Amino acid sequence: MYRIYDLQCNNMPFPQGIDDAKPTFSWKLDSDQQDTYQVSYRLRVYLEECMVWDTGFIKSDKTFDIPYQGEKLKSGQLYFWEAESINNYGEKASSTTAKWQTGNIESRWLMKWISTGEARKEIVDCVSAEAIFAGAVKSLDKPEEVLDSPVYFRKEIGIEKEVKHAVAFATAKGIYDLQIDGQSVSHLFAPEYTSYNKHLEYQTYDVTKLLTPGRHGIGVILADGWYTGKIGLMGVGNQYGERNSFYLQIEVTYTDGTKELLGTDESFKWSYGGYRYSDLFVGEYYVQAKELTGYSKTGFDDSSWKQVVASVGGFDILQGQSITPARVVKKIVPEILCTPKGEVVLDAGANIVGFTRYEGPCEEEVEISFEHSEVLDQNGNFQQNILGQHKNQKDRILPNKTGIITYKPKFTFHGFRYVLLEGIKDPKAEDFEIWVIDDGLERTGSFVTSNEDINQLQENIYRSQQGNMLFVPTDCPQRERAGWTGDMQVYAPTATFNMDVLAFLKRWLKDMRLEQKMDGQIPNVIPAIDSNKYIDGEGQDEVSSAGWGDACVIVPYRLYQAYQSKEVLKDNFQMMCRWMDYVESKVSQEGLWDTGFHFGDWLIPSIMKATGNPMETAMKTKEEVASAMYAYTTEIMIDICNVLGEKKRAEHYLALNQKTRTSFSIKYISSDGRMRNDLQGLYVLALGMRLVDEHKRQACVRHLVNLVHENDDCLDTGFLSVPFLLETLYEEGEKELAYTLLFQKKSPSWLYAVTKGATTIWENWEAIRPDGTRTNSSYNHFAFGCVGEFMYKHIGGLEAVEAGYRKIKIAPDINCGLDWAKTSYVSRYGEISIDWDKKSGNLEVKLPPNTSGEIWWNGKTMEIGNGRYLLK
Ligand code: BGC
Question: Could you give the C-alpha distances from 279 to 163, 306, 411, 565, 802, in angstroms and in order?
Fold first, then answer.
């Protein structure tokens, strides 16, 4: 059977409110025959019953990134589309119907922003980053005394005729909940997080069914979110402006063909209500007595409410929602624990991202609270591990009557496993639900082996990715929740295996382009947060660090490798070149990047253990690391330029690359292959990035191997070198040592955390120390999960030899120490699967149509087409 499935528009199954005039279409293929290739395809697009585009059958094997070229698209409409594909056997496959919804395609913005006109409090009681990491600062004392309250807006409207179609475009500076007649119509945490002053997304909602003839109440609650909330490590507010505002435009088409425009203007009124405060990090405080019941319905008495301030402008930065909206993906009934101290604690069973819902008994004026944290201490008592300023992570409810209360936070979420409960007598587990949220990114990779610890590691990697690929790729979901570029850079290959991150990272890269400085620098955190200046090292003029800013080259390149998207390279090429020019202006005559501040091989375990200060790792390694990264990015640029046909630039980078490599070897590696700075990570970078002269290479490898042995066969690599560690050893003929490190259970190692019960990837290898002490590290940092790349390639046996897995190398290492492994990956072409079993000696492979492969098995190599293969 020949099958066409997984239709995507703009790299999403069902995009809602995209405003591209030419969205792109993609699909996947499946066949039970070998060597299947598409020879032609046909696409048809419909609006209501009318066909607005029919490609006819086009001779082409293209199955993705096909741009729309039909009739001009209309705003706020639901378009349907279908695809057909004919293969080389003459079989025809027809898809089911897929859809997408257009946003405000014509960019007509005719209503006004509304606000209270009042500024939000910033709260800059800054201490140093050192004090924060030493645990000296924590939460806000009495947040209700310093934080502003979310604002309620309302208005009633009249619909006089039968509505044929009504669409609402809404956005905010802040985060909003939009209701019509008491019914919420908005997405979770809309409009999400982007570089607000340069790129703000709006959402599109079909409200046809709600707007029946008669009167309707429109109500909105607007909270600080990322716009004015106390975000980042420093918890300083007003990072993008000091006033929250909301925008709504409803376009109504009546059945008689007439149209009407409704939405926000000065006729709206505002008030404070039940949410005393609501902050993404501090948490939420709900005071039931102040609830404005019915505020979004008709007939509500708003005579005491104030008139809003209305304004126009700033519409040029609006863009339709370009990724799948966040969703509640799972509801967990927690376990209730009673700690030795007598605390009542909920246990979600795993470290997740979301919030706690409660429906159960309460007493009048007795405050109920939920404080979130990632660990219990050594004795099983609640431990608040989340560092940073203003990180209360505590949601509170003040009921105004005894009875049953139902509550879940509206404008905050947390990264946690444990919840300290207060204010509930005899709590029952079934009264609680932990709601897990994620960004709805399709899971594309699965990797299961005969080793339970490795499986747990893979699950932890996935869970950390799920919790951190939320709105933007974040370092961690509790302490900073910031788009640290270096973290994404090291993790990108593993990320593309586990989930379809194309649309998600495209959006983030757009912000990166917008945030690039005039001189080409890329801020270390995207979206940029100004309050990071409080944590910058002394004398630090730059906002970019090697390995972090380099994400602007590496991340698009990884996306190209995984998804064969030339568009990503094209869209970001200028940014990359400007960044490379900036770095070129900083490197020495010899091509070494020996100036400025860099995070270096951040968090090297031995240095962390000795000094406890990550800046030591930066200072000690920054020069070699920056130069190595420069050699690495010039090399990647050569490839990118070749893909894009930029011959001259490619030559330029080739010359730079050669110069840097030669100088690196001379300056940092002695003739006996020893690095000036005798650290594992530096050997790894030098070898992995091919910076070692041939005649020094063997010796260099020996030194690295010795360093690992001297360290009790444990790794001692930091942030930037760790992704290359196992691969470098493997490629340099030290396969066994690579596996020793992978299967190592002593600290520091990946499986050490697994033996300590980790359910996510930690920031610090010894977040839980061997003596059982729980540190106040982040327990949910995906960066070190980058080991996934090695596992999928060598144990799974999956490697893309041509971008997008058009050609696939299947070379599982049967001598990796495991009995079997099952790996599957949904590439843009379709599903690839590789199963091997050592005992039977069987290897089963399946490749999707339009691809081909080379199999390395039992010492033999074999070229194959696609389809199923069983090798013995
Ligand atoms: C973050 C990292 C980030 C780093 C910069 C940390 O506080 O959590 O993951 O990359 O700062 O060095």
Answer: 38, 23, 7, 38, 46
What atom in ligand 1 is closest to the CA of residue 618? 12
**pLDDT (0 to 100) of residue 408:** 97
Centre of ligand 1 to C-alpha 475, Å, is 7
Q: For residue 870, what are the β-bridge partners? A: 844
For 617, 675, 726, 774, the CA distances from 610, given in Å and listed in that order, are: 11, 21, 24, 18
**What's the half-sphere exposure (Cβ side, CA atoms, 13 Å) at 691?**
36
User: pLDDT band for position 185 (50/70/90)?
Assistant: very high
Can you tell me the distance from the alpha carbon of 404 to that of 530, in angstroms, rounded to the nearest whole number? 43
- Catalytic (active-site) positions: 480, 763
The count of other CB atoms within 10 Å of the CB of residue 64 is: 18
655-678 mean pLDDT: 96
Three-point CA angle 673, 715, 763, nearest 5°: 130
Give the per-residue pLDDT at 452: 98
Contact of 383 with 774, CB cutoff 8 Å: yes
pLDDT at 543: 85
Whether this model's pTM surpasses 0.90: yes
Nearest CA to ligand 1 atom 1: 475
CA of 554 to the centre of ligand 1 (A): 18
> 722: which DSSP letter?
H
- Given a cut of 90, whether residue 540 has pLDDT beyond it is no
The rounded Å distance from CA 716 to ligand 1 centre is 18
Of all protein residues, the one whose alpha carbon is nearest to atom 12 of ligand 1 is 599
| Euclidean distance between CA atoms 283 and 371, whole angstroms | 9
Ligand 1 pocket test: pick from 128, 389, 474, 484 the residue with the most ligand atoms within 8 Å of its Cβ.
484
Ligand 1 residue neighbourhood (C-beta within 6 Å): 475-476, 480, 484, 486-487, 599, 602, 781, 783
Residue in 130, 468, 475 to alter for ligand 1 test, most ligand atoms within 8 A of Cβ: 475
Where residue 537 falls among pLDDT bands split at 50, 70, 90?
low
Closest approach atom of ligand 1 to CA 475: 9
| Ligand 1: centre distance to CA 213 (Å) | 54
- CB 837, CB 797: distance < 8 Å: no
Q: Are 692 and 700 in contact (CB under 8 A)?
A: yes
Q: For strands 214-223 and 175-180, give the pairing.
A: antiparallel
Nearest CA to ligand 1 atom 8: 475
